[in-house]
């Protein structure tokens, strides 16, 4: 079909486009651990190239160079990578540890037939599991938010108590109020420096991806970028303890942004029933170990983090739907709202007790 539309040179043109597509897919998406490229990585670029290659009017008499061909076929991200490679950066200029997630929807007839062959009871059970996991993620996020609030208050009390005790000792020893104020400020500064050092040490030595609020990383993940070690247990540990120490040290920071990242990590761990950092992999929840379901649970976890930070489940749902996620559906809206409700309810119950 391509040869008949492109004329006598269709076979040569097809060969050129095939070679170009394979070369670019290999440059932008390096080989995985399985040893080769999948059809899903090759198909979008190849389809766009073939569509443009079959249109002689679009190519023009002189043809198109590689960069122009990529931009016109709607693959500017591949064109950017190709331009970087041509500039002399080589294969090393493309980060091989950052990969794309498989968010493509399978529209094949065989796939839909396989879905229809699944028993109705099986599909209902999976849907029930999704609701239960969202509830568990919301409750877990609320419990962790409560722990962060309580420990922050305790650290503040300890810090001011130690500073007050140092002021009392200095006042008794010297009898000067100025010496007492200097001792109190020095003690307060030393404790704040200790808290900041703990937070910095966790980020530098344990999990560098835990630095910052975590919102850009969560948004990148929900838009299809697999950020390395973003959803690991060590990132959860560094983020939780780090935000504790950062807030207790008196820095102009809050727990709102980190709670979004924390909720996303909890959702990723609970929904998959496994942890690479802890080397734990259970036999449960195998049906949800794919990029589609994990993405949906991470969206719900981000909403639970917002709800726990601000006490606003509707605001958390709107944040996940409008700001963070790119892929959305009506059932996901209700599950995300339920997850945010569980987070706010759990936090308020624990705080009131």
What does this protein look like?
With 353 residues, the chain is an all-alpha fold. Helices cover 72% and strands 2% of the residues. The protein is built from 15 helices and four strands. It has helices at 2-6, 10-28, 39-53, 56-59, 66-72, 76-89, 109-117, 120-174, 177-206, 215-222, 233-248, 256-272, 291-310, 313-324, 330-352; strands at 99-100, 225-226, 274-275, 280-281. It has a two-stranded antiparallel ribbon with strand order 1-2. It has a two-stranded antiparallel sheet with strand order 3-4. A hairpin with a 4-residue loop joins strand 3 and strand 4 (280-281). The chain is elongated.
Structural topology:
Blueprint: H1 2-6, H2 10-28, H3 39-53, H4 56-59, H5 66-72, H6 76-89, E1 99-100, H7 109-117, H8 120-174, H9 177-206, H10 215-222, E2 225-226, H11 233-248, H12 256-272, E3 274-275, E4 280-281, H13 291-310, H14 313-324, H15 330-352
Antiparallel strand pairs: 1-2, 3-4
What can be said about this structure in brief?
With 353 residues, the protein is mainly α. It is built from 15 helices and 4 strands. The longest helix has 55 residues, at 120-174.
